Amino acid sequence: MEMYQEIEDTYMCSGMCEKSLFYFGIDLHTGIPAKTCLMDFKDYVHDHASGFASVNILSGIIALILFLVHFSMYCRPIEEPHEPMELPRGSVIQE
């Protein structure tokens, strides 16, 4: 509700889809609202969301690259098992 009051105070509007008969958080002496808040709010988000969108696109690309690198590790050739090492003569294995 505080966010909606802030939008009304900033843009002097009321309602999102249809304009209301009165403001939600502004005194009734200011009169009937002249417009809805939807277009002003849409313009605000459009102007200020480019940084958020850029960061999300960049993190998506990084996640895709990490996935491809990780997935490529499953496709690597299988190493042949090593033959057991022979111990030098005279050595004793202690357990």
Task: Describe what this molecule looks like in 3D.
It is built from three helices and no strands. With 95 residues, it is mainly alpha-helical. The chain has one domain (2-75). The model has no long low-confidence stretch (mean pLDDT 81).
List descriptors.
single chain, 95 residues, mainly alpha, 46% helix
Short description:
It contains three helices and no strands.
Mean pLDDT: 81
- The portion of residues assigned to helices is 40-55%
Distance between termini? 72 Å
Q: Give a short account of the largest sheet.
A: none
Percent in strands: under 5%
| Number of strand elements | 0
Show unreliable segments.
Answer: none
* Tally of separate domains: 1
Which outline best applies?
rod-shaped
Q: Topology of this structure?
A:
Elements lengths: L1 H10 L26 H11 L1 H23 L23
